[in-house]
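Exercise 7b. Backbone tokens:
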């Protein structure tokens, strides 16, 4: 299956670019780029009969990806994550069609793997030796793993003391050069972009890289299949750098262009209230976020003040007839606990923001009872055990005797 011919196009001025523009920014106006396929060929290559019977996950949709057929995919079997119906939580919220898609099922425990399998494959195709990212944790964990898989060097810039322990362990164990910056994520990303512009030997894999987002869009294709060849009515996802929800929207737009779905879902983006530049822009009716200099939240994954894909996501929210809302850290912790206790799903705080947003919308009766709703649980709970333990009920201690245990159980129940 040959991929459709494609080029990169500026989302603001529509200028066409070759496959490899410096810095992944429009040479004319500096805006973001996106991958655009030749429509006729795309319809041929991306339609379902081209979805190989054997491949699962991201590479099942190879015909909709910008990768030369002969390129060997750098893969750890990403995608094909579970879509859980959540009737118990749904009942509490008055929703009959609630689903949670657990992106923590991916090889390194987050949705980033969907993007990295494509992004690192492109890096290899380009002959890169070293890949680079700034990260709040999951991107660095994923990049470190995929770089190892491809035999590349990885350099990751993380905010010192601000990423969850599991994510740090992953970057370290996979052998990335881990640089803890005395600064926040936004400062790290600005430096990564400058470094990649100056040093042609560094291939940048933050979500400014449109190839990474092509991998992430496959979540929409997968949902379409998991729901029985239809789109959900509402997709709720956490927003940090804003790449993921933008990518998911692109996936649904493509499914519509392929004639597979007649109606696109409404998108809801959720941020933490002290790290909410996209929500602020949405509420003010602006088409680009103003940077927040000091974003704060215990959901360190989405502790981001200058979202690089902000323009893309604001457009997606508007075009989908969706919305954006901010939730408090207390709501995030409560949502994490609630999902874990009602449905048996343990997701990280950044992901729980989506559940907190869902709870808020349900409380405001803003979601129809019969709507098919998908919350994207972007990362696994074990990424950040510290937060779960800190906010959970402490374990009780007992002597190792039957008597002590019996007394405890009687007291407890
Ligand atoms: C669990 O790892 O930005 O809106 O550097 O780890 O696409 O940025 C992580 C982001 C949501 C937000 N949920 O996604 C990084 C990083 C989890 C995340 C997001 C992130 P985007």
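Sequence design result:
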């Amino acid at each position: 299956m040959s991929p459709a011919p494609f080029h990169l196009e500026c989302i603001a001025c529509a200028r066409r670019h070759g496959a490899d523009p410096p810095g992944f920014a429009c040479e004319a106006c500096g805006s973001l780029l996106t991958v655009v396929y030749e429509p006729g060929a795309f319809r041929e290559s991306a339609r379902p009969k081209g979805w190989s019977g054997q491949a699962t996950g991201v590479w099942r949709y190879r015909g909709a990806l910008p990768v030369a057929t002969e390129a060997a995919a750098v893969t750890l079997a990403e995608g094909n994550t579970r879509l859980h119906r959540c009737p118990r939580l749904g009942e509490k919220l008055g929703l009959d069609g609630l689903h949670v898609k657990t992106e923590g099922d991916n090889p390194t425990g987050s949705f980033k793997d969907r993007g990295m399998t494509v992004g690192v494959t492109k890096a290899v195709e380009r002959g890169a030796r070293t890949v680079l990212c700034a990260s709040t944790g999951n991107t660095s964990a994923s990049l470190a793993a995929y770089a190892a898989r491809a035999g590349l060097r990885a350099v990751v810039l993380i905010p010192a003391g601000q990423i969850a322990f599991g994510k740090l362990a992953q970057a370290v164990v996979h052998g990335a050069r881990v640089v803890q910056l005395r600064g926040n994520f936004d400062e790290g990303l600005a430096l990564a972009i400058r470094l990649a512009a100056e040093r042609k030997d560094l291939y940048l894999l933050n979500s400014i890289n449109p190839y990474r987002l092509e991998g992430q869009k496959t979540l929409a294709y997968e949902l379409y299949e998991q729901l029985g060849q239809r789109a959900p009515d509402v997709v709720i996802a956490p927003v940090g750098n804003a790449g993921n929800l933008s990518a998911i929207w692109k996936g649904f737009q493509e499914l519509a262009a392929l004639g597979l779905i007649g109606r696109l879902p409404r998108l809801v983006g959720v941020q933490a209230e002290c790290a909410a530049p996209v929500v602020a822009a949405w509420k003010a009716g602006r088409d680009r976020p103003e940077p927040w200099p000091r974003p704060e939240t215990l959901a360190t994954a989405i502790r981001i003040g200058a979202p690089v894909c902000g323009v893309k996501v604001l457009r997606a929210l508007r075009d989908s007839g969706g919305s954006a809302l901010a939730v408090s850290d207390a709501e995030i912790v409560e949502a994490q606990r609630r999902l874990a206790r009602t449905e048996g799903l343990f997701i990280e705080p950044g992901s729980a923001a989506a559940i907190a947003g869902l709870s808020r919308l349900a409380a405001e009766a803003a979601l129809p009872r019969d709507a098919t709703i998908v919350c994207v649980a972007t990362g696994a709970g074990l990424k950040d055990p510290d937060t779960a333990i800190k906010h959970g009920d402490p374990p009780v201690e007992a002597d190792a005797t039957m008597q002590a245990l019996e007394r405890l159980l009687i007291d407890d129940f």
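Instructor comment: The chain has two domains: 6-58+111-208, 83-109+213-391. The radius of gyration is 21 Å.
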